[in-house]
Write a structure and sequence with these properties.
Order of helices and strands: EHHHEEEEHHEEEEHEEEEEHHHE
Mean pLDDT: 80
CATH superfamily: PPM-type phosphatase domain
Number of helices: 9
Enzyme class: hydrolase
Low-confidence stretches: 15-95
Family: Belongs to the PP2C family.
Number of strands: 15
EC number: 3.1.3.16
Largest sheet: 7 strands, antiparallel
InterPro entries: PP2C (IPR015655), PP2C_BS (IPR000222), PPM-type-like_dom_sf (IPR036457), PPM-type_phosphatase-like_dom (IPR001932)
Protein name: protein-serine/threonine phosphatase
């Protein structure tokens, strides 16, 4: 969504859409304002679904293009990407759930079946000294920890830097967010590392909300107890994404019931993924919403939640718990009980102080 138009809420829609305190988690005990995301919240390992999924409806391809499709590409194993390195300090910390209760938000992150948790997050409050401005993000890495570590360190920094250049022009917030995504992608690609990360962010500024995503991390709004999806997952099965990929000379293939680019990656947008960069773009879809007193909270989560729990189920669970961390933990438990083997990261943001 471009320009000054605001998103119209529809529960069933699929939208295409001074020092600042930084909150996250690290092993040593710190005060809330000292907690830093960079030290712990970048996680590694290739994401891989093990549950059986029925093959989606067969997608149509142009016969000529299908004949010319290149050989299938495979996501390299972590040991290949990192030369067999293992970060024991981080792995020991990540054996248990990460739980964070911050200023106006709560978060729970749980490692899946991989040795190392791939997910990450970032929170920056009081941007430019304004208590009504904050940035929240959840990230889901694949193919190694390098991309998500880089996103944790750089994405919010690049967005805030771009916002600073446009601080007096509220209608340019979307442009600044887009610039932050694309700059982070460009910087990471220059490193020559093959891993990638899906990203979803929410920027709050003086009663306005800008949500952005590249990949299948999702943002859902609760308004008077009803769930409204504010982002649309970028997966290869999405028709418009498949058409974009084909028009760029790529192809999609169904592997074990999941549509993938060149038989490899199931998401069609992400930061990184240099070996598929021609088709896996970092350009985010951005939606803008004017907050009202009916707006209660946001849920920003990786696909480990959304693959097993509906938007409304998630909103209902958070609504029935006074503490956002408690709601997050119960959602993690539900997703795990339904067979999720993936990493799960859930952040709940209270909107009342931003209206």
């Amino acid at each position: 969504m471009a320009g000054n138009s605001f998103l119209s809420l529809n529960p069933t829609q699929k939208s295409s859409l001074s020092p600042t305190p930084v909150f996250s988690y690290r092993p040593e005990k710190k005060s809330a304002d000292e907690i830093s995301a960079e030290k712990i919240m970048g996680f590694a390992g290739e994401r891989e679904k093990t549950e059986k999924i029925s093959a989606p409806k067969k997608l149509k391809f142009s016969g000529e293009r299908e004949k010319r499709r290149p050989a299938r590409l495979l996501i390299p194993e972590q040991s290949v990407l990192r030369g067999g390195e293992r970060d024991w300090k981080h792995e020991k910390v990540r054996e248990k759930d990460v739980e964070v209760e911050g200023c106006g938000f709560g978060l729970v992150s749980r490692k899946g079946r991989r040795q190392v948790l791939e997910d990450g997050y970032k929170v920056i409050c009081n941007i430019f000294g304004d208590p009504k401005q904050a940035l929240f993000g959840v990230f889901d890495g694949h193919g190694g920890r390098e991309a998500v570590d880089f996103v944790v360190e750089k994405l919010a920094q690049n967005i805030v830097k771009a916002l600073g250049k446009r601080e007096t022009a509220h209608n340019l917030h979307e442009e600044a967010i887009r610039a932050g995504y694309l700059t982070t992608d460009k910087e990471f690609l220059s490193k020559g590392v093959r891993s990638g990360a899906c990203v979803a962010t929410a920027f709050l500024s003086n009663g306005e909300l800008h949500v952005a995503n590249a990949g299948d991390c999702r943002v859902v709004l609760s308004s008077k107890g009803t769930a409204y999806p504010l982002t649309s997952d970028h997966r290869v099965e999405r028709e418009d994404e498949r058409i974009r990929i084909e028009n760029s000379g790529g192809f999609v293939d169904c592997v074990n019931g999941v549509w993938r680019i060149h038989g490899s990656l199931a998401v069609s947008r992400a930061i990184g993924d240099t070996y598929l960069k021609e088709w896996v773009i970092a350009n985010p879809e951005i939606n803008k919403l004017k907050l009202t007193p009916d707006c209660e909270f946001l849920i920003i989560a990786s696909d480990g939640l959304w693959d097993k729990v509906t938007n409304q189920e998630a909103v209902d669970m958070v609504s029935t718990n006074k503490k956002s961390v408690t709601g997050c933990k119960k959602l993690v438990d539900i997703s795990s009980s339904r067979g999720c083997k993936d990493d799960i990261t859930i952040m709940v943001v209270d909107l009342k102080s931003y209206i």
